[in-house]
Write a structure and sequence with these properties.
Blueprint (H helix, E strand, L loop, with lengths): L7 H10 L13 H7 L10 H20 L1
């Protein structure tokens, strides 16, 4: 997923509105740094292929749960 730095403030607003947990560092990082470490799904230490696989798994589980 390709996120642009200008989208970060709105995403952080949505995170706060949904009362989601974030690492404490989120508040200290610039939008450019958040984009640099963002890889879709998973923590920033996870390689892109792992994040892609996790994202596919979550989509599959989400689709299965929506049917029930």
């Amino acid at each position: 997923m390709n996120i642009q730095p200008q989208a970060i403030p709105e995403l952080l607003h949505q995170i706060a509105a949904l009362n989601l947990e974030t690492p404490k560092s989120f508040g200290r990082l610039t939008p450019a740094k958040l984009v640099q470490i963002y890889n879709g799904t998973g923590p920033d230490w996870m390689p892109a292929w792992g994040a892609t696989g996790a994202g596919c798994l979550f989509k599959s589980v989400s689709a299965c749960c929506a049917d029930s």
